[in-house]
């Protein structure tokens, strides 16, 4: 690692703090962190750790001078941002969050680490824009209403649509940011109360292809390994993951293993992300051709007898068909389509095949395609033919995006094809099991798969879906093709939204219900590594907000269903009674674990210790074998032409979180990335006459937008990158609502053909000096 890179990393958080100081109006030099914060930690027995909330960091008197240590409330909880599953203590007083502090005794995944968002970005909880009272819309204008009025309005309108058009004319959207308990209750509401399987969540827009591909190949639609593998494996293959910006704590563990233990790191990505700087080999690939290069690796391994024949014979099926399918993916073919030279393909294949252990890591760059499930098949095939699965340090590790997308997005059953625990709704025994638990006749339990969220928007366009109830999601920005999503929301007969802010989506609602934030909630989240961990209320709910599950329970009661849940722990007891992989998980057991932290499902009973890694002896399939599937799609759904000669791909930036509902209200986060931008290679910029800071008109076959140019070598010539977080200038103004991946019904966010032109600069300031520039974003915050 170069001195420049090391210095950049060391300065990342310090720079962030310095900008916080300026906003607070403090006159402190750059050394303030060392001279003030750390001595303060020692003086107060380290209680503040290194995590005083930004904005108070350089105003210590305001934060703590009036309090003795025993006057400050300390609550251990799980982070509300990405699905790494970091835990920390929240320090609060009188409803104000003073800061957070990692507590390694209760943090099995992150230990002493947190990222910038987990450390600083919690003041949104008491932001002046928080919803504190229900809203109803009259004549196009919102007004405050009582809970009784708002809930009755929701019930009347949902029931009216159901009575006139049937239950499948309604679509419900659960939240991957809400607790497991809230999501479980939401799926029960859809099936028992409304009578439909039309329930889904944002998992459809990110890792649904991962779930689809892995569940049909190895059994569980989740990571097969835990944090041990990410710390100790001998080899990593990372693709479609900007790990340092999307999952900083995991990135730190990987880089540490590469540096200290000489683990091999292979990175395949269209952009030269920061992880590429640490890689033994970085291969730049063309967006949309993942099947091609992965199949090229498989072909090389098989052709050169580097595959694990004993593992394949004993533990898999489908190898012969895969071997036949990959024959066309020669080194020459891979280089032509993907741009990876034969020597790089050979080196990567042989490094993986000969490693003692290997972890295959990816995020949405592999999944968000119109053939995303095939991409996952290919990755699983690669792990299986090399035998790198089923051990503590070898396996499949998709990094999940939202804090509870593993649990709330899938495990709890807020999806149209499965009950909780991935039990298919089309199976009569499963329907009987849940119908009996809910005191229903089995004939009343819906028996066909419902609409996925992407299909809900398409069905609404065709007038087959009349109303929606959306909990904790902002699909106006997150759905593909913002223009299409807006048209759908405008034409619904009824829309109810449950959230913590009046989001862009909620602006179109007829009723808005105010929910508690993570720091005001009790329950559990499930991390990428299948860790189920407690979420604890750190401050009292503000205003007149209610927990998500209590709102859903109140709606059910108005429909005539009396659910006797008095605490989130009661819901978990029902979950573990009906969901085999959660059978041994209770709130009491999680509280008693102490330093062991959470439990990794499957946890088959209350004496079971959990499962740090899966598939040690057999796969979770009907015959115990892994089922390989051929994956031979080559082209993405669209390719450049004279009208749209460039390719746009999309992704995250470190200082923002999904659609910005929380982070857009954090001054520190906004100071780094307050607007959208478009990364463009210097060669492409020269060809189109683009200068740093120019405002660009960007058009696709599906929409148009404007964003500020940032000239950088991160993308390839002929490609551009736009982040997905923004309404104005964001990538989803350009993406398409169809075609969708067949098995998962996920959209293709990662390949969109575009044209660009200079619209005229809004500023004379060069891009390197404006918030969100490459130089600032690439500074490390994975401390």
Automatic annotation (TrEMBL):
Q: Name any one GO molecular function.
A: formate dehydrogenase (NAD+) activity
Q: From start to end residue, where is composition biased (Basic and acidic residues)? A: 774-783
* Keywords tagged on the record: 4Fe-4S, Iron, Iron-sulfur, Metal-binding, Oxidoreductase, Plasmid
Instruction: Supply the enzyme class, top level.
Output: oxidoreductase
Give the InterPro entries listed for this entry. Asp_de-COase-like_dom_sf, Formate_Dh-H_N, Formate_DH_asu, MoPterin_dinucl-bd_dom, Mopterin_OxRdtase, Mopterin_OxRdtase_4Fe-4S_dom, Mopterin_OxRdtase_prok_CS, MopterinOxRdtase_cofactor_BS
Q: Which GO terms describe its biological process?
A: formate metabolic process; respiratory electron transport chain
Q: Where is the composition biased (Polar residues)?
A: 757-766
EC numbers on record:
1.17.1.9
4Fe-4S Mo/W bis-MGD-type domain sequence ranges: 72-129
- Transmembrane intervals: none
Would you identify the family this protein belongs to, as annotated?
Answer: Belongs to the prokaryotic molybdopterin-containing oxidoreductase family.
Put simply, this protein is called: Formate dehydrogenase subunit alpha
Organism, per UniProt? Answer: Halocatena salina
Q: Which gene codes for it?
A: fdhF
